[in-house]
Structures are given as C-alpha cells and as structure tokens.
Amino acid sequence: MLTLVIGDKNLSSWSLRPWLVLKHFGFEFREVKLTLDTPEFKPQISRYSGANRVPVLVDGTLNIWDSLAIVEYLNEKVEGRAWPADSATRARARSVSAEMHSGFMALRENWPMHAVGRNPNVPLPPAGIADVARIESIWAECRADYVARGPWLFGTFSIADAMYAPVVLRLNHYGAMVSGTTEAYCRQWLEDRHLQSWLNDASAEVTQ
User: Fold this and answer.
1) Residue 146 domain boundaries
2) What's the Cα-to-Cα distance from 116 to each of 6, 146, 168, 194, 203, rounded to whole Å?
3) Are residue 95 and residue 168 in the same domain, yes or no?
C-alpha cells in the first residue's frame, strides 16, 4: 500500500495537493502525519527524504518527494487520467500547475495557508494583490473555456485543481473579495467531500 507522509493538515499546503489526487482517483493509502515546527520534525522527515520536507510518497522501496513529482507519479499509475485527455488542454493544465508550483510568492508569504478558521484582517501588499488577480484570471479563463465539460478548472477533476486547492483555503481564511467566477470555483472545492474530510481533521488538530 502507498504511504503519504504529510505535515499538519491545518498548515501544510503542499501535503494537501497529492492527498487530494490520491483521494479523487481512489487510491488506497495510509497517512503518516508529522508535526511541523517541532524539534522532532527534522529527524522524523529525514527518514523519508534528504530534502527534509513534506510531502513524501512511499511506494515499497521507492520514496518520491515534492508535490509535483508525486502527482506526476500518481498520474502514471492511473494511465494519464489525472491530466486532461487531449494534448492541448493537457499542456495548458500543466502550464497553470507549474505556475502555481513556482510562483505567487507574495501570496504565500503574506497569506500562509490555514485550512480552518477566519482572519480577515491581514492586508496583502501590492504584489500579493497582483498574485490574486493573476490566479482569478487563470480560473476565469479556464472556466470560460471548459465549463461545458464539468465544474472543475478543465471540466473534470485534474492535477491542476489539486494544485490550486490551497489557494481556495487562503481566500476563504482571509476573507478575500473575489469575483463571482472565483466564488463559484471556491464553493466547488469547499463542498468537495474529500476536502471536507481534510478540513475536519484540520479542525481536530487546532482544538487539541
């Protein structure tokens, strides 16, 4: 059975991404959750990866680290179904996913992910506001072009959706003022049963 090594569900945006792919594509897996920002974290995570970061996917004797590498590995296991089927749409989905993976630093730094709770009193600097505007533009373009295929960014659920799920939680936590299209996409995520399961666990963490 696969094992996914993750951090706190309230805080670890990178852990959330492959977890959602695993859930949406019906993988059986077990979780190993490590508590971030503790003295125990580094010796614990070093058992799984020299990068000393979560997440890590363990498949037998193979350890795969970094969210994007993990979801690409999972995509191979489902024979490519985790990306859109046609090459042009697949390339576009990979492009927006790679942009998420490497960009939006002002948003990340000023609005770190908190899966639960609300804190609408944290202002974004201009660079963070520009990040949100760019993300909203991506979502609006994808939904306009693929709405007939279904409710996710490219119609059916894909890795691209998992890559942007933590942004949904950021916008929700910090009470961002967003467009109707963004609000609808956020609602799609917040009503997702797998994300709801993650949020329930995150709530339990913060009340312990």
Assistant:
1) 87-194
2) 17, 30, 12, 15, 6
3) yes
